[in-house]
Structure formats: C-alpha cells, structure tokens
Amino acid sequence: MSNLTELKTLAITVLGLLASLFSPIQDFMVAMMILLTVNLVFGVASAVVSGEGWSWKKACMFFVFCGGLFACFASMFAVGHFLHQDAEAALCVKYACFIAVWVFGTNILRNWRKMLKQGTSTYKFVDILLYVLSVQFVEKLPWVKKWQEERGG
User: Fold this and answer.
1) DSSP 4-40
2) What is the Cα–Cα distance from 38 to 56, expressed in whole angstroms?
3) DSSP code for 120
4) 15, 41, 60, 66: which is deepest, by most CB within 10 A?
5) What distance in Å separates the CA atoms of residue 150 and residue 153, rounded to the nearest whole number?
6) Of 74, 89, 61, 60, which Cα lies nearest the Cα of 32?
7) 128 CB-contact burial (10 Å; exposed 0-12 / middle 13-18 / buried 19+)
8) What digits encode the pLDDT tens for the residues 9-28?
9) CA distance linking residue 153 with residue 138, whole number of Å
10) d(CA 136, CA 132)
11) What is the pTM (predicted TM-score) of this model?
C-alpha cells in the first residue's frame, strides 16, 4: 500500500472510532449544529438589515466558537466515558446544551427583533418570546439568575 492510502485508512478509522465514542451524544451535537446555524443566519441577516455588511472576522469567530463548543461537549462526555459514567456525562452535556439553547436562543430573538419594525405584531410577538425566554429560564435556574445579576446581563 502507498503512504497516501495508509493515511486515508488511518483517518477513516480514527473518524469511525470517534463517531462510535460520541454516538450517545450525537443528537445533542446535531441539535447544537442546527442552533448555531440558525444563530449565524439571524446574525448575518441582522447585520445586513442594519447596514453592517459582511465581516470575515465575525464569520471566522463563529467557526472558532463552534469548534470550541463542540470540543467542550466532546471533552465533557469523553471524561465521563473514561470514568465509566456515560449516563452522567451525557446528562452534563444535556444541561450544557440547555444553557446553549438559552444563550443562543436569546441572541437569535434579539437579532430577529432588530430586523423588525417596532410596533408591528411580529415585533411584539418576538419581544414577548425574548422576555419569556430571558426571564422564565432565569427563574427556573437560580444559579443562572445569580450569574446574570453578578455580570449585569
């Protein structure tokens, strides 16, 4: 076999092993990919509507952040897996995903609201959704409320 064929075989084997290792959290990873893609679309649309234009720096930071988020989730699960605590590790990833949904969901709604004309029915609807998401989530998790109060967010 040639060196290139061996390298391809090694790469495919490693990807297969990683896919197998992370299969319990595959659904969480797909959900986060959808959430981050929607966040990107609304961020770009909001920037275009407000006249900002395209920014390669923002685009690159999006991909860096996606990579960091997925690495964080994968690391959390891998540590739990190697400690033979797969269920607990998946639960940690699940809760981290809930926090990500809250953070990116409020960002998506904020960007969407920026694109709408104030006073319209859609604006009011998105404004109420943003209020409910930002307040109701915080009320359910007291440590998030405390964090938000400390950070002024």
Assistant:
1) HHHHHHHHHHHHHHHHHHTGGGHHHHHHHHHHHHHHH
2) 18
3) S
4) 66
5) 8
6) 74
7) exposed
8) 989 998 888 888 888 888 89
9) 11
10) 5
11) 0.75
